[in-house]
Amino acid sequence: MATTPAKRPQGVVQRFKGAVVEAGRSFFPSMGWRDWRSVLRGEAAPRPNPRMRVNSNSFWYHIRPRALPLEATAWYYTFGLGWMSAFFFVLEAITGMVLMVYYTPSPDQAYSDMLRIISDVPLGQLMRNMHRLGAHFMVAIVFLHMMRTFFTASYKAPRQFIWVTGVILLLFTAVLSFSGYLLPWDQLAYWAVTIGSSMADAAPFIGNATNLLLRGGVDIGAGALLRFYLLHIFALPMLTLLLISVHYYAVRKQDISPLHELFENKPPTRRKIPFLPDQVFFEIAVIGLLTFAFVVINAYFWNSQLESHANPTQTPNHTQAPWYFLWLQGMLKFGDKQWFGIGWPPVIILGLLVLPYLDRNPSRRFKDRKVAIGVAIAALIGMVYLTNAGSPNYGIQQTAASEISQEWVPVEGEGIVDTAIKWEDIPDQRVVYDTDKKATVQGPALADLKPDMQAAFAQFQADVEKWKKLDTRFRQPHGTLSFDPFAYETDDTTQKIIVDRAGAKVVKLKRATVNLDWTTTNVDANGKVTDFTDAQGKTTLSLFQQSRYLDRDSHDARLQSDASPPRPQQ
Amino acid sequence: MTRNVLLATLFTLGTAIALLVIFLGEKTTRMPAASAAVNATQIERGARDYEQYCSRCHGLAGQGGANETGAPQLNNIVQRKMALQDPKDLNSSDYGRQYGIKEKYGTIRNYIIATLISGIRGAAMPAWGQQAGGPLRQDQIENIASYVLSWNGDVPSSTVALAGTVAAASLPTADPGATPFGGGKVLFQTKGCVGCHNTSNVTLVGPGLGGLFDPGGTEAYGTNLPNGNPVNEANVLDWIRKATGGFPQKHVGLNTNVNLAANLANGVMPPIAITDAEYTKLLVYLKAYGRDGKIKPGADAAAPGVKAGTLKPTPATTPQPAASAAANQPASGGISQPASSATSVSGTSQVVPQATGTTTP
To answer: What is the maximal distance between C-alpha atoms in chain B?
Structure first.
């Protein structure tokens, strides 16, 4: 630190230079520009090494070590997972703050704010995508970080406490991610959180109170949104930040566990690499790479969906928890809510917390840890199994009719009619495909349709036949899949219908309809499915119908191929 | 080290350039496309809501219900409201003077939204907005307005043709139990009942119909219909078919000399064409629900039969318990149904009463 009172420099240029040097000093204390130049040129550090002093004289650098053990920086050992968790935490904080500017946590406003962020805010969609995908990545990476720590036995003495804080951080990460789920106030948000918070309801004694406290009422409404918002933007991030500090402090104190302990014949090395410059520039390069990749992915390759406005009166089909809680949802399918939803998770978490104190085996080598690793692999397999059980494909199939319509013309999300057929290939006239006739019964003949339409109809035929086999109550099924032109496109300024070059009116909205009927069945006392007969002894038909509207402006964005149609000429 | 410095510089520059490129493309390409997609989604959802709530009176293609309900045509609403002027001159004083839309609402879109929210006083159009006690949220109303404005004078002829055949069967939520009650539930949807009524005690535009035939009747109207007749099967059928209030026959829009106030005293329910056979199916469905909106235990087994021709309305002035008792008698042609014709492969949470098959006494 320079203490000599300097003469006030004369002239604008001089003063500017002085300010730059001053700013540089405050960020990189103890290093002059000559030192920096030698760093950037890759020159060997002089003695005494000015680069070491930085860690003593700057708050930001003192957090990091002066040098890292070479063993700990082997990429195949840690995979940099802890560091990446921190990276995503910062990324979430930055993108989250941008989103906060445009968001109001009220049921009247939240959804339209989301629409505004998507369509009216420059880079708004990018920020939302990055925030959302980043949250998923962060949960995954924190989990992988825990896996790595377990399999390399890094939780063993003297590092038990690091593991404990890490388990708590994993919980915080999942809850942090989950608390953000409600904020868009769409159907996905509403129902995922309904499932989640109703799980708390099952807890004995405190369940009801917890649920009320969390929701601010019996139902999820304005109170719940505000509570989740405050949890998401303030309480949980603050706690997480605090715990990250404790976690990292403990890591600094104990150092990363040495790699050589894992192997019998590997000699320990005491070599270290200096934090400045090697590690710093490596980390900056990785930050640059990750940020760049993440920006490009989110701008061009991935879009987060927004479902329709939250509606308490309509439960969408296939409601499910976020993927990292699917195992919990799967567990609920195996037993009652109280035991499986509330009984087991605390046991699992408690088990994880006390793991390093239970596992007193001092060796970190794989061959000495056969039981621990065996149990962990079994637990992982169980987790994968439960996750699969939690997905809607398992156990909760509804009727064949609702499964088929969910697949083809879902109310939320995208169906096959959105993703498999090009807008231009849907005829501008009514076309109806009939599974009994295996042909179109209205509109152009099957052979005259475009290949993707033909393929879709063939798939529809196959689907109905598939479900006939899967669902015993789906007897003698018969389905039609129809497409209708529904509305014309008009010009916004002249209010006239747009016609194409051939003089035909341009269709803006088309409707896809799935109609299913099958013989009504009954289940008798033995569980056998029989045809239901009415008073006259006749069988009756059951009917099901569902439609989905397709709009030319949004349709082709949903296509799986990247073909997009030309705009019509006026 | 030098490689890392190079990479760091490269990627930092790359990120900056990528952000710049993305930013420059935002206003010209991405944001208009996103707006179009948002608008398109609004229209898709508006179409669904329109089909459920509005098409019963205004027609699936907005063609209006001229003879049946008198609801005005909507697919030409812009042209109709701007009939006197050059369509380009939306701001002309003629336009404003003629209809007051400009002064009052600014744009025709606002006019539509305001009409949807609060209805039209003295006419059959009810208030749909939640803020006015109706069933629709603000975003649903805006979606419907977007959809109505997307027509502009013409709709594909096949859509008009669909109106008679498909009606409003596609509900926003795929309901796995859509087929129980011998098709009564489907009829409740296709006949458009669901646009205004539900099967609990919640009053939407029309009263909730839960417990209609129970001793206590509905929560909103009790045991009497709006026209004063007691609730029984025959009177309800009569009410559905013709005893309607707010819809004077053969009037379009508000240009009518019919005494609307007198009609509106009986509510705004439009007349609905329904056959005896359809009505018996509908009854099965309606009778299955109590006021609390839950299926009554064993409701499916009590499927009533109503003999065609016995459904004579009983006026309020001369209550005829005998007649209604006769109407309540099960007949051999009674409809019966399994309540669970569309239940699951491996068990859902829905109510699955054991169907007994037949109810012939």
So the answer is: 102
For chain B, say whether A77 makes contact (Cβ under 8 Å): no
Please check whether the two domains, B38-160 and B173-361, share a CATH topology.
Answer: yes
How far from the centroid of its chain's Cα atoms is residue B126's Cα? 12
Query: Which CATH number does B173-361 carry?
Result: 1.10.760.10
- Residue-wise DSSP of B258-283: S-HHHHHTT-SPPP----HHHHHHHH
Sort out which chain A residues have CB atoms less than 8 A from B78's CB and list them.
495
Domain ranges of chain B: 38-160, 173-361
Mean pLDDT for all residues in chain A: 84
For chain A, positions 218-257, list CB contacts with chain B under 8 A.
none
Locate the chain A residue with the closest alpha carbon to B44: A549
Given this model, what pLDDT does residue A424 score? 84
CA distances from A423 to A195, A232, A306 (A): 36, 40, 22
**Distance between CA atoms of A346 and B320, rounded to whole angstroms?**
66
Task: Please name each of the domains of chain A with its CATH number.
Answer: 12-63 (no CATH), 69-317 (1.20.810.10), 402-558 (no CATH)
> Looking at residues B116-124, what average pLDDT do you find?
78
Of the ranges A149-163, A345-359, B279-293, which one carries the lowest mean pLDDT score?
A: B279-293
Give yes or no for a contact between A488 and B154, defined as CB atoms under 8 angstroms apart: yes
Cis-peptide into B32, omega within 30 deg: no
Scan for tokens 């409707």, then name that residue.
A511
Does A407 score more than 80 pLDDT? yes
- pLDDT at residue A441, as a whole number: 85
pLDDT at B310 over 80: no
CA A558 – CA B41 distance, rounded (Å): 12
Cβ contacts of A289 on chain B, cutoff 8 Å: 7, 11
Q: From the CB of residue A362, how many other CB atoms can be counted at a distance below 10 Å?
A: 10
- Per-residue burial over A321-356, b if 16 or more Cβ lie within 10 Å, else e, is bbebbbbbbbbbeeeeeeebbbbebeeeeeebbebb
Q: Answer for the pair A165, A249: CB distance below 8 angstroms, yes or no.
A: no
- Closest partner residue to B7 among A122, A288, A523, by Cβ? A288
CATH superfamily of B38-160: Cytochrome c-like domain (1.10.760.10)
Q: Is the peptide bond before A158 cis (omega within 30 degrees of 0)?
A: yes
Phi-psi region of A302 (alpha: psi -120 to 50; beta: other; left: phi over 0): beta
A50 three-class SS:
helix
Query: Which 8-state DSSP code applies to residue B211?
Result: T
The Cα–Cα gap between A205 and A462 comes to 51
**Per-residue model confidence as pLDDT tens digits over A232-252:** 999 999 999 999 999 999 998
The string of pLDDT tens digits covering residues A471-513 is 777 888 888 898 888 777 777 666 677 777 777 788 888 888 8
